[in-house]
Input
Amino acid sequence: MPKKGAKKGGAGKQAGMTEEERLLYMQQRAQAEDEMAKRKEDMLTQFLKDKLQKEERNSAVNLHKLTQQWRAVLRQTRAAELRSDIAVLSQTFERVLDRKDSVIKCLVCDLSEAEQQSAQALRSHLECVDCLLALQKGRLASLEQQWNSGLEGLSYEFNSEREQILSQHQQECAYLEDVTFAMEQFYMEVDGEARQDYQSTRDDIKNRNIEEKHALRIQLEGTVEGLWRQFQHALRSYNEATEDRHIAFESLRTRDQRSAQEIDTQMRRLQKMQDSISALRSRLNSSQKESEGAARGLRAAREEVTLQARQLKAQLSRARAAERDQLTNLTVHSNAAAKNLQGIITKGERLLRLAEMCRKLETEHEKVLPFYTSSLTAEEESQERANAMEPPSEELAQAMLDYLVLERFWQRYNKVLLERLCLERERGALTQENQQLRIVLRQYLDGISVSDEILRHRNPLLMVSRPTLAVQPTADAQRKRHTVIEAAHVVQRTL
Output
């Protein structure tokens, strides 16, 4: 109701307004409605945003609660699984520990037995060594006696030969002294003459060298002056060209000096640090030596036990490997043998089935006399028996003895093979005869059938003679003029 009144009041107001006032009023009203709609949209958007934030906070809180509860459930299940795993692992550990204890006990027993065996072997070895020492001492005594006797003989021979050599040496020394004196006199004379010749030749050469030296000096002085001028010019050009490099070199040398000083200071610091490190290292070495001395005994005992355990483990692994190899070879060979036997069994079953099938197809004569008669004479058969009684000398003949049982089988096989060849030849002959009979039959059928195509060709069975114009033959005479050849006569002539 108020809206209707408001509409009526607005209409009354618009009735008293001009056109411009009405337009302005309508614009203000539209702006007010737009502002109202925008305010409503803002309020609705803010309400939805607040609701969304509230829902997000609630979902985060619920997710945190679910995570906490799920973690508690997972912890309980994991704790139960870990307890069961711990129980299983403890049982496994106890089982392994018992097994290791039993292995250690066995190893201790084996070790004691090995020690007893080694002690027994050592006693027997010492006894053998004592016997060998006694034998060696006796042998050394005999050898020493032989050596002494040989030494006496050699010393006597040596003394006699020494006296002879000394006397011969004295004689030779006297002869050599005489020869040396004569040679010295001769060489002194030769030396004097050679010295005189040398002095004269030396003076000539010296004078010649002095003259050549003066000439070369004059020539070389001019060459040296030219070279000196060239050197001075090259030096000036080099100094001008390398002045900048010289300056850079001076700066680098000063920098190098500073670096050398820094290196010296650092080296002093390093030396001090090395001294402290060496002192600490010496203390560490002393402590390590003390600890190593204590641990060396334990390590030696552990190494002995480890070595014995390793040796026993190696023996056990070798034995297992050998048994595994034997088992593998046995399995492979047994499988191969089983396959071969199965193949032989299948082949035998197939042979038996074929024999039964062939037995059904045999004739009465083949059942009574399955083997063909030999084509050999009596003498050849006796000689064959004699050869069979002799032991074979060749490998092939020895191998054939293993297949004597199959001789009857091969006889029947050869008989069947011969019969098959005979039947094939007979079949070929019958096939050829059948072809010839077919040709004759075709010729006969062509002769008895009368058609234009057959009459155009030569007909072997039917020959017609033309009648004469003067005499008209009768029907009987016309029948007698036809010549007919029987097919049986043709077959006899062709075959």
The CA atoms of residues 112 and 118 lie 10 Å apart. Residues 36-234 form one domain.
